[in-house]
């Protein structure tokens, strides 16, 4: 799986599309994350320099307006701002504490997928 310069990690991440993030790397699915959670995650990703402000902030604002999210009271938004992705069934996946290495690369990829998923909801 993978091959080339990307190796196993690149191949596994390259195979993951949209909300179906998949199994080989143990990455979470975005399919259960609602608009509030995605908007909060975009804020987390910007705050932690995984996404640029100019790219993610307009999407975060537009999604918040469209879904009627109040960042002060929406618990899913607040969870997202703390780096928690709602994976459904009462489960979450934490992006916090990525540090260096593979978890940081996974978090970067997840932030990009969150941005794409949020754009698709607009």
How are the SSEs ordered, and which strands pair?
Layout: H1 7-15, H2 35-47, H3 53-67, H4 75-81, E1 84-88, E2 91-94, H5 102-120
Antiparallel strand pairs: 1-2
Helix pairs in contact: 2-3, 2-4, 2-5
Protein name: YjjA family protein
InterPro entries: DUF2501
Organism: Nguyenibacter vanlangensis
Structure description:
Pfam families: DUF2501 (PF10696). InterPro entries: DUF2501 (IPR019637). This is YjjA family protein. It is a single chain. Strand 1 (84-88) and strand 2 form a beta hairpin. The chain has one domain (32-120). The chain has helices at 7-15, 35-47, 53-67, 75-81, 102-120; strands spanning 84-88, 91-94. It has a two-stranded antiparallel ribbon. The chain is globular, with a radius of gyration of 14 Å. It is built from 5 helices and 2 strands; from the N terminus they run ααααββα. With 122 residues, it is mainly alpha-helical. It is 52% helix and 7% strand.
Binned strand content = 5-15%
Low-confidence segments: 1-24
Give the strand order, joined by hyphens, for the main sheet. Answer: 1-2
| Mean pLDDT across every amino acid position | 83
Number of strands: 2
What is the SS-derived class? mainly alpha
Rg, alpha carbons: 14 Å
The main pleated sheet reads as: 2 strands, antiparallel
- Number of separate structural domains: 1
Helix content: 40-55%
Please count the helical segments.
5
Order of helices and strands: HHHHEEH
Report the end-to-end length measured between terminal Cα atoms.
34 Å
What is the molecular shape? globular
Protein name: YjjA family protein
InterPro entries: DUF2501
Organism: Nguyenibacter vanlangensis
Pfam family, one: DUF2501
């Amino acid at each position: 799986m993978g091959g080339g310069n990307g190796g196993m990690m690149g191949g596994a991440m390259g195979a993951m599309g949209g909300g179906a993030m998949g199994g080989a790397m143990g990455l979470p699915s975005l399919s259960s994350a609602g608009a509030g959670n995605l908007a909060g995650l975009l804020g987390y990703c910007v705050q932690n320099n995984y996404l640029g402000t100019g790219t993610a902030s307009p999407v975060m604002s537009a999604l918040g307006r469209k879904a009627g999210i109040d960042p002060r009271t929406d618990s899913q938004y607040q969870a997202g701002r703390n780096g928690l992705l709602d994976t459904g069934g009462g489960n979450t996946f934490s992006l916090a504490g990525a540090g260096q290495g593979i978890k940081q690369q996974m978090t970067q990829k997840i932030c990009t997928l969150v941005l794409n998923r949020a754009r698709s909801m607009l």
